[in-house]
Amino acid sequence: MLLIIGLPVSAGTTYYTPAQISAEVFSESEPEKSALWMTPERRQQAEALLGDAPRQARLRYLAADGRYLWTLSEIGKEKPITFGIVTTSGHIERIEVMVFREVRGDEIRLPQYTRQYKDIALTENGDLSQHIDGISGATYSVRTMKKVAKLALLLDRWANEDNAVEP
Hints:
By secondary structure, this protein is α+β, with helices and mostly antiparallel strands. Helix content is 28%, strand content 27%. It has four helices and seven strands. It has helices at 18-25, 40-50, 111-114, 139-162, and strands at residues 2-3, 13-14, 32-37, 58-64, 67-75, 80-88, 91-100. Strands 1, 2, 3, 4, 5, 6 and 7 form a seven-stranded antiparallel β-sheet that branches. The longest helix is centred in the last third of the chain and has 24 residues, at 139-162. The chain is globular, with a radius of gyration of 15 Å.
């Protein structure tokens, strides 16, 4: 089951609040709050890519200067993990664990792990464009981060389509 949790985040170990990550990501500009509507076609595409689809009618995000900040949550082994993912032009610019609620597997928050997501895109067949190394003892957390990364890239694609200006 794919959960998208809006602001605010609560419980677990908090590494970033929504305000903190927004301030870091958009330090030089004021982001716009926006929403992406989940049409039946988009639900089908998400389900084909991820095995399930967000249940919300719309997904909120922040945007400025062609960059999008997605706050997404997904169940790890038993509890939700909340991520902040910055996308630009179909690529991941940055991914952070905002709130970790599981008992183990929080190594996915470390820069040594998250930096391998930088500049990753979705391939035509829906895979991540680069191999992601696993972490022994954090299998569920790794799978969850990969899934959320794919979703953020799919959302980035849709947001770019929605925001495209006709000549």
